[in-house]
Amino acid sequence: MKKTSRILSLALALLLALTLTAATALAAQAESTILTLTDMLGRELSFTKPVERIVVLQPADAEILYAIGAGDLLVGRGEYANYPAQVLELPSVQSGFETNFEQIVALEPDVVVMTMMSQREEDSKKLEDAGIMTVISNAQSIQGVYEAIALMGKLTGKTEEAAALVDSMRASFDEIRQKAQGKTGGSIYFEVSPLAYGLWTAGTATFMDEIAGMLGLTNAFHDLEGWQSVSEEQVISRDPDYIVTTAMYFGEGLKPVEEVLARPNWSGLKAVKNQNVFNSDSDEITRPGPRLVNAAQALYEFVYGK
Amino acid sequence: MWRGAGLLALVMLTGLVCVALGSVPIPLDKTASILWDGVLGRDLTGNTQAVIILTVRLPRVISVFLVGAALSLCGAAMQGLLRNPLADGATLGVSSGASLGAMLAILMGIQLPMLPLAGTAVLSVIFAFLSLLLVLFLAFALDRSLATNTIILIGVILTMFMGSLMSLLISFSGPRLRSLTFWTLGSLSGAGYAEALFLLLALAVCGLVLLAHARELDAFAMGEENARAIGVSVRRVKLTVMAAVSVLIGVCVSIGGSIGFVGLVIPHISRLIMGPAHKRLLITSLLLGGVFLMLCDLAARTLLSPVELPLGVVTSLIGAVFFMFILANTRRRAA
Asked: Which of A46, A72, B140, B191 is deepest in the core (most CB within 10 A)?
């Protein structure tokens, strides 16, 4: 009898202690939640302390963070982030399929900004298990880029700067769209991989396709989605008015534009005959970041002149 | 004799079918008249269909034929030389060696002004030869007999080793990552007459060298000791055959990337048709290899048109199934 009561009272005390700690923990959490946001995967995130150390894995997100003046919060970058130049001074971590979690954890970030384009969902779980918050951006279109910018603004307390950046991008795109209105369009073929390595092009759901539409041009491979390997004879039979190659020049052999113009059996194509071949900056035109404006402007000038 | 004529007819017929069919539909009579005009050397500038037939499809089909012929010829020669039914550029690590060389060339930007791919080809050939030497050296160092199983095992190990070296190269490639990635997915889609000519030269020289050693290969089939006993200079023959095989595989890999199963499967089929005598076997493997790869490439460029599949994927899919079929059949017959 005595024994049971002792056990009972002990259990009661334990229960009381548990509820008390839970309650205080809950209260503490409610008290110090200073920021909540929804990332582009639709996850509700609440932050209990200010975000002061960020590791950014995707190059475009790094560009956005610098563009809204939050570059000083960065403590690490994904290995492919290379713009603006300051980003190269940050320690680089291996990202993508071989993401190096040890490297990331060692940088002691509050938040890792990543994207679903090159990271898997397991990656974010792994980081969260290590006590690091993750914010996921996932821009597939220019509208998506605006959302990513707003998200970064909210995360870093730079909402005004973010809004200003979105406004300026929107204004630039509107201006390009207006200038292109009523101009004779034509078809444009984007070459992502040159002939020597097998042709790859960009179909719908790419920034190249979206920019082509903005300029009043039709993507020659509008019937495909995403990046695709295509037959050379298809390019020849579609005979585009403009050819844009995103190949990079490393200082040896022919330059990308010259290489396209020099293909003997392409000499009959309209774009080649009229020398309408352009080498677009691959980073500008493929990254979901603020420099899409530069890519669109460069393409506008190439098609319609200054 | 009749079988020889039949094979040649098969090559021609397959070639014509592959030129007539493609991702852009062109009527048969149109194709025929374009080909005829092309033969007569008539001016066809401005005719898009003629451009497609004569400058895209024809050189590609020819290149594909030559690559298939070369790989399959190499497989037959290696299988004879090593008396090993599983020997092939891919199983011995020669193809991955060649791929490694090609990747290094792309990474270091080695290009010759005339043929952009020649720099890649030179390194491919060198690395193919080195990896073949390495396989044989290691096998010899291990058990001094060049036993079949040892060679295959070392080939497998070396292939994995080269594979990891390639992954290492890719992770250090920086801005050239894209070129490398697209190259590894590569196909013969960009092959023009320059590539075809390059392949033809390599195949003509190395093919003749291999054919000239057909009788020695027959002697090898009875064992190296017996071959030596009837006066075959074993070491010289081995080195010559290996050099020819390395050059061929290196050139093929540098132009078309690594294409599996052709060199393994086709010699077996050829042996079923023509028997084991090497002169016939080598020629049959060469022709059938070309036919097989032309058909695979036709599938690669038409199945999902306008999208293209990587050629290596198609050959491996068809080849693996085919190989299982042959294996099951021979087992059943033996039982």
From this structure: B191
